[in-house]
Amino acid sequence: METQETFSFYLQREQSSTKLDFGSDAMALLDLSANRRIAAGLLVNLLSSICIVFINKWIYVHYGFPNMTLTLVHFGVTYLGLYICQKMDIFAPKSLPVRRVVWLALSFCGFVAFTNLSLQNNSIGTYQLAKAMTTPVIILIQTTYYKKTFSTKIKLTLVPITLGVLLNSYFDVRFNLLGTVFASLGVLVTSLYQVWVGAKQHELQVNSMQLLYYQAPLSSGFLLCVVPLFEPLTGDHGIFGPWSLPALMTVLFSGVVAFLVNLSIYWIIGNTSAVTYNMFGHFKFCITLVGGYLLFHDPLSLNQALGILCTLAGILSYTHFKLAEQEEGKSRLAQRP
Description:
Layout: H1 2-63, H2 67-87, H3 102-121, H4 124-132, H5 134-145, H6 152-170, H7 177-204, H8 208-230, H9 245-271, H10 274-295, H11 302-335
Helix pairs in contact: 1-9, 1-10, 2-8, 2-9, 3-7, 3-8, 4-6, 4-7, 5-7, 6-11, 10-11
InterPro entries: EmrE-like, Sugar_P_trans_dom, TPT_transporter
Keywords: Membrane, Transmembrane, Transmembrane helix
Domain Sugar phosphate transporter: 47-318
């Protein structure tokens, strides 16, 4: 009896050990698979985010394709891509009242159109740095209209960001008034859009893909009404002009890349931490700047380089303090009974 009990004990122990080993192996495989998916998602976002800037700039420089029409193509391809995604059960669409997303759709039009116009009329360096001003403007909007408060440390990080952008713009040999106007409008409308999209997601209880699924066709409709008023329909550089096949293929490809940017951002936010997303954003910021100077031979003076470093230091500081405050807030909530 004792022998049988001893045998039974060791058999159970061996079985449980085998299960444990099997479970550990399975967990290791799952972790490896998850890490590969995250790496693939980050790679798609990296390539698409950088490529969309260079492809759009290439289209403007080498083909002269009309800006708003390019934006309209991006909206159309994005909606088509989201439609395919919801058919594949990647996300579930949610019925939303049109009147509650009209202003958001309008701001989406302005955000993309003015950003593209800034890219068309500025060097990639100036275009990229101007986008960094979105953070100070968002803080200004939230402080003024939403009565939100920010710590002194966060406010101080806005000084090097703003100083760096001004320094780069002042010493940019390709500086022009029209490009500055478009960059400023782009920053203002982008900031409004980002504030509103956060509020709408909370108000309507939807995620970014569900909201974009309704925004994209609405924004396309608005642009479709406006495009003929601002861009020629026929002739050279007209919407229905004699475009070459490579030009049309490049435009269509840019629409696909624009969709991949939106899709990969949504995926990264859902599958990684805020730290990963923000740090990855800074890496893309640097790569895009370097690529602009290498591919399009944008001139870079010492003062501009100092401006870029100043802005980057401000962005990194802002991210560090913002994430630290978020972690502190989470720990306080966890300690509450």
